[in-house]
From TrEMBL:
Residues 388-401 have a biased composition (Basic residues). Belongs to the DEAD box helicase family. InterPro entries: DEAD/DEAH_box_helicase_dom, DEAD/DEAH_RhlB, DEAD_box_RNA_helicase, Helicase_ATP-bd, Helicase_C-like, P-loop_NTPase, RNA-helicase_DEAD-box_CS, RNA_helicase_DEAD_Q_motif. GO terms for molecular function: helicase activity. The lineage of its organism: Bacteria, Pseudomonadati, Pseudomonadota, Gammaproteobacteria, Oceanospirillales. It comes from the Bacteria. Residues 218-378 form the Helicase C-terminal domain. Gene3D superfamilies: P-loop containing nucleotide triphosphate hydrolases (3.40.50.300). A motif (Q motif) lies at residues 1-29. Residues 1-29 form the DEAD-box RNA helicase Q domain. It comes from Neptuniibacter pectenicola. This is DEAD/DEAH box helicase. Keywords: ATP-binding, Helicase, Hydrolase, Nucleotide-binding. The keyword Coiled coil does not apply. Residues 388-423 are annotated as: Disordered.
């Protein structure tokens, strides 16, 4: 189905043409029409499926159909998102759709002073993109007025719940107009997401572009079994052997990210880093340099998993597997976007095999293993087999165990005494 079939405002259609949009993605086909009819929506959509257009286009169309004068810090539409990186990305994307409409779009998030944002909010805005915590600060300071808000979107709702924003979200919704259209988009439909949807949606329509919790079909998944201590060496070898360029690599902790950066520099590989200990300015520069192709590798923690949109990114590497299987879906959602091909590469040590099992159960398929000569790692199955062949350990009763411990203690004491005599 083509976008031209939607009979959108000429200004919106022209912007979509400029973006090169022609055929709608599955989530867009299912969500845009009911959203334009004013239905509340619960949508299961992974990153890279075109979900931003699925909720942004209906809002832009309805705002342009019914223009209003803005005053007293009024906000017509609120889009909540979990991270500042994703807020920035949404502002950039929706601004492209708004190119010829000229509606007022703002974003607010942490890392910038409240006063700077307050000045921009004073005259009101058609669309406000915000992280929950920062928006709540502005509400408390009376910098925004949500009493007449017509649309509320929760983007990446599952992530907001994971990050503990549910209380902030509920407070924001209480401050919003009771009569509004609410749309909830989530990469996974957990029980917590369903509970939230029942609390905030009215006669909603549930939409799923694909089977729950699976990844894009355009992504090729591969696992490299490797000992933890040899991961830096394997990473450097694969980059050079396959001539990978623009590689986004995820670690589970900031410490792991810092260590990997040192190893990459030692191997002469240009890399930048993006994690929570870096300033907002440093993170922006790192991402900008990576997008511009000035560096080969971007090392990131979970903070960047949902906010990055890098056109044509072919390789995402899980240097360490995430603690939650759902985060695997979010990480690799940076590649294989909008129908493009991508590869999700995971380095898995024996200690991470249980995490890999959880991921494979989540995505519903076994991931292909690739064994690199010189980096072999013994399988856990082989280890279990060797243990079973030795037979079960003989049980020792408490009295015997106490006697053995006493004998060992006596031998140790005699050895120490003998050593002192020799001196």
């Amino acid at each position: 189905m083509k976008f031209t079939a939607l009979d959108l405002a000429p200004a919106i259609q022209q912007a979509l043409d400029d973006c090169g949009y022609d055929e709608m993605t599955p989530i867009q086909k299912q969500a845009i029409v009911p959203a334009r009819r004013g239905k509340d929506i619960l949508a299961n959509a992974q990153t890279g499926t075109g979900k931003t257009a699925a909720f942004a286009l209906p809002i832009l169309q309805k705002l342009s159909d019914q223009p209003k004068e803005l005053n007293n810090a009024q906000v017509r539409a609120v889009i909540l998102t979990p991270t500042r990186e994703l807020a920035q990305q949404l502002l950039e994307t929706i601004s492209r759709y708004n190119k010829y409409l000229g509606l007022r779009i703002l974003s607010v998030y942490g890392g910038t002073t409240l006063d700077t944002q307050k000045k921009k909010l004073r005259n009101g805005t058609d669309i406000l993109i915000a992280t929950p915590g920062r928006l709540l600060e502005h509400i408390t300071a009376c910098n925004v007025n949500l009493a007449q808000t017509e649309f509320v979107v929760l983007d990446e709702a599952d992530r907001m719940l994971d990050m503990g924003f549910v209380s902030d979200v509920m407070t924001i919704l209480e401050k919003s107009a009771k009569k509004r259209q609410t749309m909830l988009f989530s990469a996974t439909l957990s029980s917590a997401v369903h509970t939230l949807s029942r609390q905030i949606l009215t006669s909603h329509e549930t939409i799923s572009a694909a089977k729950a919790n699976i990844t894009a079909d355009t992504v090729d998944h591969v696992v490299y079994p490797v000992e933890e201590k040899r991961k830096p060496e394997l990473f450097a070898e694969l980059i050079k052997k396959h001539n990978w360029f623009q590689v986004l690599v995820f670690t589970s902790t900031k410490g792991q990210a810092d260590e990997l950066m040192k190893d990459l520099k030692f191997d002469g590989i240009d890399a930048v880093i993006c994690h929570g200990d870096k300033s907002q300015g440093a993170r922006r520069r790192a991402v900008a340099d990576f997008k511009a192709g000035k560096v080969q590798v971007l090392v990131a923690t979970e903070v960047a998993a949902r906010g990055l949109d890098i056109k044509g990114l072919e390789h995402v590497v899980n240097y360490n597997l995430p603690y939650l299987a759902e985060d695997y879906v979010h990480r690799i959602g940076r590649t294989g976007r909008a129908g493009a091909k991508g590869q999700a590469i995971s380095f898995v040590s024996r200690e991470e095999e249980s995490a890999l099992d959880n991921i494979e159960r989540l995505i519903g398929s076994q991931i292909r293993r690739v064994y690199v000569p010189g980096f072999e790692v013994g399988s856990r199955d082989g280890l279990r087999k060797r243990i079973s062949q030795k037979g079960p350990k003989k049980r020792v009763n408490k009295a015997t165990r106490t006697k053995i411990i006493g004998q060992k203690s006596a031998k140790k004491t005699n050895a120490i005494s003998g050593s002192k005599k020799k001196r």
